[in-house]
Amino acid sequence: MKRKPIITLVGIASLALVVGRSLEFRRLDDKRAEERTARFSPAEYARDFWDHRLAGALDQAADAGSLIRLFNTDMKAAVAQGRTLGQSRVHAYLLGGRGRITAVDKEGLFVSVLADSPGPEVLICTGAYIAGNAVRDASGRIDVSTFSDTMKFNRISAEINRIVVQEVITPFLGRSPQTGMSLRFIGAAEVAEDATEKTPFGSRERPEDPNSPWYLLRIVPIRLEAE
Fold first, then answer.
1. N or C: which end of the chain has fewer CB atoms below 10 A?
2. Angle made by CA atoms 92, 93, 98, in degrees to the nearest 5
């Protein structure tokens, strides 16, 4: 008669031990997750991305001239070549090529990349501040689904853009780029789907309509070299 209460007590004690350990492990996992969140550094993440992950994506950069022609003739096909987050109608592109500087101002370098056009078609951003998510999104090397906090995801872009200014733009401007200079570049651009519905990329003014509107494709440089 005494065995049953003893067995019952042993069973309850064992169950309590298992449940207690389970709760302890869960609390430990939660604590570790909180610590990982607290330790997350957008600057360190951006540094690792720039130094170790971005280079592998640059080989996939599209030819700038070919992409501009595609934007101006078949936006649907151009959209298919870009990277898009969620349902956004803004698409990011890695592109590169050679060109000639047609003008320099505080916004950046106006560059002609099409031989059959007086240009320019491209504005390579060289300001002291770069906005947007072009480099982050165009690379395809950062998965937004791994971030529960969109603020952190956006802060990564700010840190990447800071690296661009410090390590790409500033050294290039130190060489005093001038009109007529040839250069080679790889960069990232963000383009909205409706961008070329009424106005094309590039200076395409016709003699009969010298004031016709046109866009410049804004490129955030990743590699920038004078030739």
1. N
2. 145
What is the pTM (predicted TM-score) of this model?
0.78
Give CA torsion, residues 75, 80, 85, 88, to 10 deg: 30
CATH number of 41-226: 2.40.50.420
What are the residue boundaries of the structural domains of the chain, listed by start?
1-39, 41-226
pLDDT over 70 at 31, yes or no:
no
Q: 185 Cβ partners below 8 Å, 6+ apart?
A: 64, 96, 97, 98, 99, 111, 124, 219, 221, 223, 224, 225
Query: Which 8-state DSSP code applies to residue 105?
Result: -
For the chain, first and last CA: distance in Å? 96
E-strand stretches of the chain: 62-63, 90-104, 108-112, 122-125, 182-192, 217-226
* pLDDT single digits (tens) 162-178: 999 999 999 999 999 99
Strand-pairing partners, residue 225, are 184
CA atoms within 13 A on the CB side of 152: 17
Residue type, 157: S
Q: If we measure between CA atoms, which residue out of 112, 133, 136 comes closest to residue 122?
A: 112
Angle formed at CA 53 by CA 86 and CA 121, multiple of 5 degrees? 65
